[in-house]
Fold each of these.
Amino acid sequence: VMGGILCVNVIKYERDNDMGFSEKLQEYARLVARQGVNVTAGKYVLLFCSIEAAEFGRMVEEECYRLGARDVIMIYKDQKASRIRLDYAPLDEYKTLPEWQAEQRNYYAREGCVTINILAEDPEAYAGASSEKLQAGALAAHKAYKEFYDIMDKGGIRWTIAAVPCVEWARKVFPGNTDAKAVSKLWESIFKTVRIGRGDTVAKWQRHDRVLKRRAKILNTANFSALRYKNSLGTNFTVGLADCHIWKGGSEKCAEGVDYFPNLPTEELFTMPDCRRADGSVYSSMPLSYQGELIENFRLDFKDGEVVSYSAEKGYGALERLLSTDDGSRRLGEVALIPCDSPIAQSGILYYNTLFDENASCHLALGECYPDTMRGGELLSEEELLARGGNRSANHVDFMIGTDDMEIVGIKKDGSEMKIFENGRFVI
Ligand code: ZN
Ligand code: ZN
C-alpha cells in the first residue's frame, strides 16, 4: 500500500513544488543521518524503523554508510504484529526480556553506537489492548536495556527520532481525505516542519539553532527557581526548577563533542524541574497518545511535586496506567517552553504524535528527567540525582499544556518575578 501511495505522491509533488518529492525525500534521509545523528566514520548505527517506513529506512541506511558508518544494524518494528502479540501472548512473556535480545542494544552501546528511530505509527494501534502487558513490557525493557540507557545518559550515544507517514496515522491527522491524499498532505507537512523545501536545509537548521541557543542563554542567566503558569483552561500551577538546571534547545553535544539533533523537528527550550516542587492544577491542551491510546482533556493536580488526583474525559484508563507505572511516573522530569507562534503551532495541525505536537505547545513530561539538563547531572549516581530533584522513572511522557493565552512568570530565588510568556508567546 505504502509503495503505491508513494508513487501518487511523486506525481503530485513534481507538479506542485520547487523540489520534487523524491528530491525532498532524499534531502530528508540526508538530514536524519547528518544533522540528526551526525554519523561519523567508524560508528555503528542502530536503526530502528517502523516496517511501514522501510523504503525511507533504506535511504537513511545508505546515507549512514556514505558518511562512513562501520555498520548499520536495521531493527524493524511492526506495530500490527505487536498488536496481535498483545492480544494473544500471555502476560508472563512481557515480564522479562530475554538476555540475547537486550544484549543486541547493550552490546552496540558499549561499542560506541548512534541510534536512529524512524517512526511511522498509528496513534491508536494499541487502543483497548491489555494495559497490564503494555506496562509490564515497558518496565522489562527499561530494566533489560539499563546498560544502554546508562551510556546514553552520560552522553555516550548520539540519537535522533524522525517520522514518516503511514496510512493509519495520515487518516487520523487528515480525516475526510482519500488515503493517498491524506498521506500526501502528511508528507508535505512533515517536510515543512523539518525545513525541507526552498533553500539550503543545512543553513536553515543552523540559523534555527542559533535562535534557540540565544533564548536558552537568557533563561540560563535569569536562573529562575520556579515558573508559574496560568491560562483560561484552568491551569494555575507552579513548578520548581532544579538547582543548577540548564535550559537546552536545538542541537546537543555528545560526550565526544559532536553535535546532533535528538528530535527532528525541534522547537523547544527545555530544562529539569525539581520533582519535589510542583503545586496546583494543570489542564492538557492537546490529546496525548500513550502506548497507542488517546488521552483527551485531562487534568493533573500536583502537591509537593506529586500527582495527587486527576481526571480525563477520554482515555482515563491509559492515564491511570501511565501514572501508576512507578513512583517517578507521578512526578515531572521535564519543563519545556514553545511559543504559540512556532511554525508547527501556526500550522494548526494536530499530529497525534508527540514528536510534532510537543513542538507546537508548552509541555511538561511525567517521568524520567534528562540528567544533562542539570550542570554535571550526567556524572551523578541515580541517588545523587534524585537527592537534587532529578526524577527517575521507566516513563518519559510529554503532555501539552500551552494555549494562546498562557501566561508564565519566572520566580527568582529572592522572590522577584519576571514575565516570560504573555498570550502564549515569549516576551523576553
Ligand atoms: Zn520536550
Ligand atoms: Zn520530553
Amino acid sequence: MEYITLNTGYKMPILGFGVYQIPQRDTERAVRDAIDAGYRHIDTAQLYRNEVGVGKAISKAEFPREDFFITTKLFTSGYQSTKKQIDQALKYLQTDYIDLMLIHWVIRDYHGTYQALEEAFHEGKLRSIGLSNFNQNQVQDILDHFEVKPSVLQNEMHVFYQRTPLRQFSKDKNIQFESWAPFGEGMNNTFTNDVLRTIAKKYDKTVAQIILRFITQEGVVAIPKSVKKERMMENFDIFNFKLDEWAMDTIRGLNEERSLFGWP
Ligand code: NAD
C-alpha cells in the first residue's frame, strides 16, 4: 500500500474501498471481504445508510482501530444538526474518532456545517475534515472563512473527467484530491475501451488495474467499489507495477473534462 500525508499530518492509504449502493445487510460482509483482501481504508456516508455495517466489520476485525482509515460524509444540515450527526456517526461506526469527515454536497448552510466539523476537529472527534462535490470558488470560500483547512477534496474523477484544473488548484492549496467513481461506474464503456485494453495487454494487467494505477500514480486517492471479492482483490493489486510516461500520457489523452453523471 502507498500512503499520502494529509495537511493534518495523518497518513491516508491512497487506495480505499467505497461502499456506495451496498445495502446495509450486505455491508458488514463486503467490508470484511475488503479487509481480507488488504483494504484498510473504507469510504462510507450518512447517505449510504450503511455506516453500521462498516462499524461492525471494523470492530470485529483482527486488526486494531489505528490500522484503519475511515471516511464518512454528512448532509449539509447546518451547525446544530451537524454536531448531532457527528456523534451519531461515531456511534454507528463504533469508534471514538473518525479519520476523515467530508461535507457531502454544497447545499444550504455549508458554513454552519463546516463550523461544526471544525469544532469536532479541535475536540479530537475528527482527525481531518474536508469537502466533496465543491467547485474551486466554493473551496476558496471555505479557505477564506475558516481557520482549519480542508484536508481532502473528494469529487468525481476518472479517465474521462480528469479534473486537471481543479486538481492543480487543490495541489496549490495543499488539499489532497480524491476520486469518487474511479471507473465512472463503468459508463462510457470504460472496461472495454480500446486504448485502456491495449495498455492493459502491454502490462499484463486488467483495465480496472490500469485505471486505478493511473489515478494513484497521478497522486490522487481512489476508492473503487465492488461487492465481489475477486474484484476487490484485483482492484487492490496495483502496487507491483508502474505505468511509463507513454502510458500515462496516452491515458491523459482520454480526458473529455466533462462529468459522466451530469453534475455541474
Ligand atoms: P466505481 O467507479 O467505483 O464503479 C463501481 C462499479 O464498477 C462496480 O459496481 C462494478 O460494477 C464495477 N467494477 C468494480 N471493479 C471492477 C473490476 N475489477 N472489473 C470490472 N468491473 C468492476 O463507482 P462508485 O461506487 O460510484 O464510486 C466508488 C466510491 O466512491 C463509492 O462507493 C463511494 O464510496 C464514493 N462516491 C462518492 C460520491 C460523492 O458524492 N462523494 C459519489 C459517488 C461515489
